[in-house]
Amino acid sequence: MKFPNNFLWGAATSSHQVEGGNVNDWSEWKKGDAGRACDHYHRFEQDFDLAKSLGHNAHHFSIEWSRIEPKEGKINQNEIEHYRQVIRALRQRGLEPFVTLWHFTLPTWLAKKGGWLNPKAPYYFDRYVKIIAENLFNEVKFWITINEPNVYALNSYLRDVWPPQKKSAAKYLKVLKNLVKAHQLAYRALRLVDLDCQVGVAKNQTFFEGNLLLKYPANYFHNQYFLERIKNSQDFIGLNYYFHNRIKGFKFNHNSNEEFSDLGWEIYPEGIYRVLKDLKKYNKPIYITENGLADKDDAKREKFIKEHLTWIWRAIQEKIDVRGYFHWSLLDNFEWDKGFWPRFGLIEVDYQTMARKIRPSAKIYARICKENQLFAP
Ligand code: FCB
After folding, report:
1. Which amino acids are annotated catalytic?
2. What predicted TM-score, i.e. pTM, was given to this entire model?
3. Rounded CA gap, 106 and 62, in Å?
4. pLDDT tens for residues 94-140?
5. Which residues have C-beta atoms less than 6 Å from ligand 1?
6. Ligand 1: which of 206, 290, 291 to mutate, most ligand atoms within 8 Å of CB?
7. Does the N-terminal or the C-terminal CB of the chain have fewer CB atoms within 10 Å?
8. Is the pLDDT of residue 1 over 90?
9. Which of 367, 338, 349 lies closest to 54, judged by CA?
């Protein structure tokens, strides 16, 4: 299985889940304070040494808006410099940075103003993105504006499980619309500052099958709604793949669950191929910006990675332009409403001592990364 020569290999994290010490709408929420998390804010250099030793040539992470703009309109230049150091540390190690500008957490001042429900939210986001772009444009080539807008809107406004827990279909749609607007403004801002940069979103796509009556609306709102609206303002598509959903009768999630992760999520590698086939219609390069599983004992991760890569490889043989794979996650981290128990890391973290330990599956993935780069230009 040989991947294209320029293929990017790496892993992903997000600010609130790994940095530690963040003050935002999640840290204010009952189950959302990640405390020290992995202390990655202070240990990024060692963590990137490990990523490099594992053969990665790219890394996907996010900038924490609440650090950059902790008070409305007040920019913390020291934090911009922090992320400049993060990006440079990646480059020094030969890792291409993929930088996400918003991964689920809001500055508290914006949360108090209604968060993404506020019609001005896309303009606040645009103002933040412009500041980042003006400061860091010559350091970054690949930008991701928003992480999983559909999952955020679903969990925060339809399912009541994430802050601000405002369950309402009307609000769900309003938030999605504002996120579309936010992406479009950010796309324009980034490309205006640097014509050569590449801008996309990280989009969670689910492979739905079964009863058409439910499949069509689910597919439309979860998979198509956002991408349809931004299809002319993106240079690539970031794909986050975790879920297969078989609909039987009028019940969702009628999966056979032959294999599943510690979170009970079904492992269904073929689904990544199915969603890739569907994304072909947008005619853009695709990067797998997240894909992984909670597996504390590391019993299933090796097989998981190999099988997903095999299906991705097959998609590439069928002329789908996939250009990179970022495993979720580089490190064990804070898994939102679930807390710290799910272990997604290629690298295990001891939260008492903050010691890092490379899991066996990470070494297998490293071999795949390294072998594929043998012929890289
Ligand atoms: C994705 C999120 C990421 C992580 C994984 C497990 O939906 O983008 O932050 O929580 O799920």
Report:
1. 148, 290
2. 0.98
3. 13
4. 999 999 999 999 999 999 999 999 999 999 999 999 999 999 999 99
5. 14, 17, 147-148, 151, 204, 240, 290, 328, 335-336, 344
6. 290
7. C
8. no
9. 367
